[in-house]
Structures are given as C-alpha cells and as structure tokens.
Specification:
This protein is an alpha/beta fold. The chain has two domains: 38 residues; 150 residues, Glutaredoxin. The protein is 39% helix and 17% strand. The protein is built from six helices and nine strands, in the order αββαβαβαβαβββαβ. The strands form three sheets. It has a five-stranded mixed β-sheet with strand order 5-4-3-6-7. A two-stranded antiparallel ribbon has the order 1-2. A two-stranded antiparallel ribbon has the order 8-9. Strand 4, helix 4 and strand 5 form a beta-alpha-beta unit. Helix 3 packs parallel to helix 6. The chain is globular, with a radius of gyration of 18 Å.
Length: 213
C-alpha cells in the first residue's frame, strides 16, 4: 500500500504537536481512500480513471531529479517511450523490483528510451535507496506536500510501473512485482529498438511470478 509521508517541520512544541496530529489525520485519510479504491475495484464499482491502466493517456508531469534537473514527460516522449516506476524506499517489494528495472535500463535504456524512478520520499533517502540497490537511471522526487503526480496516476500501491509510448498511451500498467509484466516491457522495448529480446531473469534465479505491493 502506498503510504505517503509528510515533510519535516520545526517550530514551537504546540505547533509541533498540532502538526503531528494533522499528519496522522492525513495519513489515516489517505489510507482509507486507498482501501476504498481497492474495494471498489474488487466489487466492480470503481470510478473511471482512479488508476491509469493500459490504453489510457498518461497524465503529463514535470518533476526534479536528485541533481535538480527538471524532467517533463511530454518532452521525454518526443524522444521515445518512457518507463516510469513509482516507489517508496521502505517498501520491500520496491527493493526487490528495482534491481530488475536496472537490468532493463542497462539493456534497453538510452537511444530515446527513458527510465525514471519517481520517489515518494525525500532526496536524501531516495539517493541512499538508489545507491543501495544499484539504480543508475534518474530518480525524481514527487511533491512531499501533495504527491501531485502519484495522485494524478491514481496510485493505490507501490511499486507501480508504467510503460508509456511516444504518443502518450500507456502500454503496460503494472502494480507490485509482476514477472510477466516486466518481460512484456522488455519485449516492447526490444521491438521498438529493433534488437533481439534478452531474457530478463537468469536460469539460476528463483523469481516468483508476482509479489503484491
């Protein structure tokens, strides 16, 4: 479940107590909204566009990376497809998934294909995550105060990974770790770059079919 954390605040004890109470209320509200969205999907009464799925047009966004560089989805799509992976550093499934995304990036990134990590944490923690799990593609920071991009994509879980084509259409929308979805992304990028498809998972690896986020 994507639990979004609030930023730090330093003030008088009274103001600090008020902030902590407000943060707990906001977290509880976000968790309840997430649960309600999941229940709606389960009973088949989900409101349209609460989660971006394959075939939808991806909402545009502009976020800054760890080196303070601005990344705009619309500008990146002019060069080619984009793989955008939303995550939270404390999420075990994110920790499991990102090394495989790095494999995809090393094989298919560049030459018009952009990989982005979109973090729901601050820059320092995100940098530590990237170093620990060997991620070399750009890591962007979602707005810690409002999580505008995460909300625009209707996230209920992390990791959530999107393959977005150069026309802005979502080709793959994957929640949690899904082996088949990652292989589909690899096959799509291989076809786009007109190179041979290489197996993402080694024969000696024991990799589950999926891990829910």
């Amino acid at each position: 479940m994507a639990v979004l954390s609030a930023g730090r605040f330093h003030e008088s004890p009274t103001a600090g107590h008020l902030f902590q109470s407000t943060r707990k209320f906001c977290r509880g509200t976000l968790e309840m909204m997430s649960i309600l969205r999941r229940l709606k999907r389960w009973v088949g009464t989900q409101d349209p566009m609460t989660h971006i799925v394959a075939g939808n047009i991806a909402p545009n966004f502009s976020l800054k990376s760890l080196d303070n560089k601005e990344y705009s989805l619309s500008a990146l799509m002019e060069r080619g497809p984009v793989v955008a992976a939303f995550f939270k550093i404390s999420c075990p499934v994110c920790q499991f998934t990102f090394p495989f995304l790095e494999r995809l990036h090393k094989r298919y990134g560049g030459d018009g294909v952009t990989f982005l990590g979109i973090s729901q944490d601050d820059a320092r923690d995100t940098k530590n995550f990237a170093n620990e799990y060997g991620v070399t593609f750009p890591m962007l920071i979602d707005d810690e105060n409002g999580y505008v991009v995460s909300n625009a994509y209707g996230l209920t879980n992390v990791p959530t990974i999107f393959l977005i084509d150069s026309a802005g259409k979502v080709k793959v929308s994957s929640m949690g770790f899904d082996k088949k979805d990652l292989e589909t992304i690899a096959a799509e990028l291989a076809a786009r770059k007109k190179i041979s498809f290489a197996a993402l998972f080694r024969p000696d690896e024991v990799v589950p079919a999926n891990k829910p986020g």
